Please model this.
Amino acid sequence: MFRLRCPAPGAAGHPLWLGPGALDGLPALWRPEWRVAALVADRTALRLHGAAVLRRLRACAGTVRVYQLPPGERHKSVATWLRLADRMLADRLDRAACLVALGGGVTLDLAGFLAATYLRGLDHLLLPTTLLAVVDAALGGKTALNRPAGKNLLGAFRFPAAVLADTTLLETLPPRTWRGGLAEVVKHAVVGDADLFRRLERAGRALHRPGSLDLALLARAVRVKLEVVARDPFEWGRRSVLNFGHTVGHAIEAATGHRVPHGAAVAVGMAVEAEAAVERVGLPAADRDRLVALLGALGLPARSRGPFERLRPHLAVDKKRRDGAIRLSLPVRLGRMAASQTGWTVPVKAAALRRAWERRAAAPGRAR
Model:
């Protein structure tokens, strides 16, 4: 078990328990002022893990309320947020309630936004149930809703009171969902831990089984993000490096109506943006090739068959754009990201990004 501290502005941070049995820490972290537990979870998480979580919550709080949402990215929406908020208002929940989010990235993003906005802010706990949520969505205080124009265009920063990441829950994941989380682990290795990248290369196909990632390697991936967030909690600069692969990835998700899941879209996004990095910031071609090979070994795609034009409307609303220019977070080598005079993103012309997309589309390997 790893007991870490997650950075948060203006405070000592909050605890992160990472490992088998982390859910057993719920009574130790529960605060006496939380008289009501408001459990927000998707149907799948409730079916698989609801009984275990509810048993622990009922031992902590006088009252437990359950708020269920359908699984899937399309439900990370204003409509779902309003429906849940109205149900909580109808139940007369006040600020003595603690919102407890159980699920993957969609649930944690949505529940975090609900915690940020309900009665101008509730305390909340995050109980991630997917690898993607453990290594990314549960860390750093970002919350978000999607809009038709693009992903995560509405949101707020709201840091949780604690994160309990019980890795035994990951063993229940479908293989495709597990692989999607591995994409975020790879991203963290590219962003800030070249040795982690080498270890992932050595493991390769042995990581296909859900739950097979060594806990120490998972903790290293988590620490990459924690170290970046500690320096830039509100993404004014350095934290942008964590968006590697996400500019193109989010555009793929939006362009396909979220039929391409987040992890697969980010995998393609990393391959395309690495291609752009070779031309724009001098990423060694050998490093690009190692990234593409690792994605393939993990069962992740590195190219898309669709036309670049379908991405353009969604790239136009990317949050990192400045003065109409597309800006990417690009590696200069594995484990190190580019910085420019204007910050931690690099302007890339649409024509250059199109060339990168088309080179990847023409390359051999798994496509999405």
Summary: The chain has two domains: 2-172, 175-362. Residues 175-362 form a domain with the Dehydroquinate synthase-like, alpha domain fold (CATH 1.20.1090.10). The chain is about 45% helix and 20% strand. The chain has a mean pLDDT of 94.
